[in-house]
Amino acid sequence: MEVKITDDGSITLFSEQFNQHYHSKFGAKTESDRVFLELGFTYTAEKFENIKIFEMGFGTGLNAWLSAVAAEKSKINTSYFGIEKYPVKSEIHEKFPVDLRLFHQSTWDEEVQINDFFVFKKQKISLEEVDLRNDFNLIYYDAFAPEAQPELWTEEVFKKLFDALVLGGILTTYCSKAYVQRNLKAAGFSIEKHLGPPHKREVLRAIKQI
Ligand SMILES: C[S@@+](CC[C@H](N)C(=O)[O-])C[C@H]1O[C@@H](n2cnc3c(N)ncnc32)[C@H](O)[C@@H]1O
């Protein structure tokens, strides 16, 4: 596992196991801000009073951290549930910004109040095994790319995520490959294509229509 600085100065990791970066090398924070915060959190906050978020692939915790900041700023009560099959080792945490370390120091399987508007829980489990409730408003789908983990981008997986959302709930992801769109549609989602972060023409917002 290697720590790298991306073009906007924020850090990412490189996984040798999957031969994948955790974020865009053109800007980890810029990518999360666009794909998960703007297209996900901000949009969902306009539709629902309180938000329940499920994150597939907690990783460095960047999405959780940015969401906690956004929840506090917008005063939206948010509960966040992130899963991770391969937790980042503790010696790497020291290289993370202090606020991000908080998410790694919290105990697995326990709810932690991060700020007045943000409750956080993480679980060390795979997407295949996790039992999901059916009351999420928003899913951050942040798996490694289909080239590395095709088994995480199937219709079956997306059906599980579709069932985990309330009506009107949404899923955002950075990957807009044609077969990912097809599998999302086959699982029941409507697809919107949006402009991505730098060097990414298009990203997806998938909606469970009312
Ligand atoms: C693209 S990275 C996530 C980046 C993360 N959201 C962040 O902000 O740092 C993908 C993550 O999915 C995790 N992962 C891989 N296979 C998984 C599985 N089957 N179930 C749960 N997590 C998995 C990886 O360990 C990695 O942390």
Question: Can you lay out the helices and strands and say which pair or pack?
Answer:
Layout: E1 2-5, E2 11-15, E3 20-21, H1 28-47, E4 51-56, H2 62-74, E5 78-83, H3 90-93, H4 98-105, E6 112-115, E7 118-123, E8 136-141, H5 155-164, E9 165-173, H6 178-186, E10 190-195, E11 202-207
Parallel strand pairs: 4-5, 4-8, 5-7, 8-9
Antiparallel strand pairs: 1-2, 2-3, 6-7, 9-11, 10-11
Helix pairs in contact: 1-2, 5-6
The structure holds S-adenosylmethionine.
Radius of gyration: 16 Å
Average pLDDT reading: 96
Report how far apart the termini are: 42 Å
CATH class: Alpha Beta
The helix content, as a percent range, equals 25-40%
| Number of individual domains | 1
Compressed to H and E, one letter per element, the order equals EEEHEHEHHEEEHEHEE
Note down, in words, how this protein is organized.
It is built from 6 helices and 11 strands. It has helices at residues 28-47, 62-74, 90-93, 98-105, 155-164, 178-186; strands at residues 2-5, 11-15, 20-21, 51-56, 78-83, 112-115, 118-123, 136-141, 165-173, 190-195, 202-207. The mean pLDDT is 96. The chain has 210 residues and is an alpha/beta fold. The strands form 2 sheets. An 8-stranded mixed β-sheet has the order 6-7-5-4-8-9-11-10. Strands 1-2-3 form a 3-stranded antiparallel β-sheet, with no helix packed on it. The radius of gyration is 16 Å and the shape is globular. It starts with a strand and ends with a strand. Helix 1 (28-47) packs across helix 2 (62-74) and helix 5 (155-164) packs across helix 6. It has a single domain (26-207), classed as Vaccinia Virus protein VP39 (Rossmann fold, 3-Layer(aba) Sandwich). Helix 5 links the parallel strand 8 (136-141) and strand 9. The structure holds S-adenosylmethionine. S-adenosylmethionine binds next to helix 2. S-adenosylmethionine is lined by residues 22, 57, 59-60, 62-63, 83-86, 126-128, 142-144, 149, 152.
